[in-house]
Each structure stands twice: as C-alpha cells, then as structure tokens.
Amino acid sequence: MSGSAKRMAKIRPFYVMELLARAKQLEAEGRSIIHMEVGEPDFDSPEPVVRAGQQALADGLTHYTPAMGITPLRETIARHYQARYGVKVDPGCVIVTPGSSGALQLVMSILINPGERVMMADPSYPCNRNFVYLVGGDITAIAVDHRTDYQLTAEMVASHWTPETRAVMVATPSNPTGTLIEKAELQRIHQVVQERGGVLIVDEIYQGLIYDEPGYTALEVADDLFVINSFSKYFGMTGWRLGWMVAPKTYVGDIDKLAQNIFLSAPTPAQYAALQAFSDETLKITEERRLAFQARRDYLYPALTSLGFKIRSMPKGAFYLYADCSAFTSDSYQFAMRLLEEEGVAITPGRDFGDNHPQTHVRFAYTTAIPALEEGVRRIAQFIGR
Ligand SMILES: Cc1ncc(COP(=O)(O)O)c(C=O)c1O
User: How many CA atoms lie within 13 A of 276 on its CB side?
Assistant: First the structure.
C-alpha cells in the first residue's frame, strides 16, 4: 500500500500560497510586483521585541519550555486583558502555542469527535475548515453576506444547529472581510450555543487592528468559551510562530497533555521576545502602525469602489477588503492570475475562502504602503480598462 491517508482528499491547498509563489518567481525574473495578496504586515517586528529575542539567544534560552509556555508570558498576557479590556483572566488558562495555528489545531483536536460538526461562516479563513477535517470532523458552512456584515448571527446558529453540531467558530475582525461582530450579537450567539450544550470558539487574531471603535474581547462576554489569539498580526511577528489561547479551566489539562505530545513547546526565543510585546515602548509602535493601516484602508476602499469593485460592508478591522468583482469577471481565479501576469498586481481569489460565490469575489490586503497601493490601483484601472 502506498499514498496519503484518505483524510488528505478533503484538505484543499491554500491557493494564495500558489499565487504568492508565482509572484515571487516573476519578481525574481525582474518584474515589479505590487503585493496585495499577503496576509501579513509589511512592518518588521517592533524593535523592543527583536532586542528581547536577540538577548534570549545570547543568554542561551534555546531549550524547551513547559508545553503551555513560560509562566511570565502567560502572566503578561493575562495582565494585558486586565489592562486593556478590564477582564480578569487566570494565567493558568492562557496557553502559549506555535502560532495561533497551533492553538487551532489543539482546540479542534480536544473538542471534535469524528462525525461532529463545527459551524462557521462562508467566506472565512480557509485553514479552520482543514483543522476540523484533520480530526475527522465536518463543517457546517453558512453562506453570509453584507446583510449581516459577513458574520454569523445567533439566529443563523440556532436555525442551522443539528445534533452533530459540537462547536461554533467566529472571527472578529474577520479574514477575508475585515468585519466585526457586535458584542451584543456575540452575547446572543454564546447563549444559543450554551443552551444547546455546544462550545463557542472566537478567533481574535486580528485583535487590536480595529479602526473605528475601541473593540472588546469575547472574554468580556463569558469564560466558558475558547479565545484564539496571535502575535502574528497586531504585533507583526508572523515568522516567530507564536500565538495563544485562553481556554475554559476544565479543558486545560487535556490541552497540556496534547501540547506536550504534538509541539513539546512553542519556540523559546520567541516567547522571551514576546514578553516585550505588551511594553509601553512596543505598544506605541503598534499603535502607530494601526493608524498607518487605517490610512491605507481609507485610501483603498474608495479607490477600489470608484473602479467598480463592490465592497458591501465597510471593513472595520484586520487589513483586508473583500470585493465583488462581478463587474469585470465571473472567474475571479483567472482574473487574479491575469492581473498578476499582465500587470504585476497580486490579489487573492475568492476560492480560498469557501464556496459562497468565490468566483465573483477577490480579497485585497493593504499590507503595503500607500504609494504602492496607488500604483496597484493605477495598474488595476489599466487592466480593467482594456
Ligand atoms: C483568521 C486567521 N486565523 C489564524 C491565522 C493563523 O495565523 P498564525 O498561525 O500566524 O497565528 C490567520 C493567518 O492569516 C488568520 O487570518
């Protein structure tokens, strides 16, 4: 017998990575490429974080840590919730993971039995589906649109609930739409899930990158839910591979047991570096960057809509615009590929995010400076004007 396990048949590629590879290849051949596909900040990690990471290496902090992370970091994260959102979090319920991807893998593994379902919005972050498939579960993908800001509502959760439903997963701000769930709606969703004996998972990995309101954490709503977070986006630390989750106390023992087995621990120098992530010095830098992202959004949103892209819900967070491109194409994948080949502008086709009209949607990431965005818009205008 040879070949991969059957479960691999359900795992789809992360198409944007293919597009990124092609964009890099064109760049290597000397073409100028405007990157509006990449889901990571263009800013390097903040200086204080880098210095702390270098110090950790110099101090020989290169060995395993406890599976759930170093105590000072777990305490620092807990204090951050208190300082920023006024929520008391038990550091014992904070688990430091290799990226939020590590947290997602842990959470799906400890919660989902084969045949059980996780409910989520379509469109949404593609890897979440695959984490569920990996443990033999299935997803209930609910098609959402601008009428609910591309988010699940309590009513949708209630009406799609089946005996197999084990968990509901939401993301605020969302990838790919940058939209939020209002706190009152999250409260209602939590209540529906709780009444049915399920579990709520809230992806807050774009927390902090929010532009028109102060924001909140789901931990203000309840403590019997899972919150997933990351140092990747707001703290600009994608390559350090560090995230965290806050879990209900009853699950912590199982999470520890599984983390010991599958990761041993999150990267050690990264954990020491992250101790500086919440310092005043770093937060001053991340706040400046947040304002830079906001300025980019405020440039790109009207620029794209005036070209004829339809962005039906104002994106209030993350660094994405999810746009209807039906004025130009009914095949967003070909559209993105041709735009890359002919004009050197890389964007993400909708099919990465689900099956809800992916062929007429594309995602723009404003993870590049305004002059490059302006050049991108100029090239797109030229492309669609042909
Ligand atoms: C919604 C969402 N969740 C999770 C992740 C994973 O990020 P990381 O593993 O770097 O924390 C991403 C990355 O793009 C994302 O957009």
Answer: 21
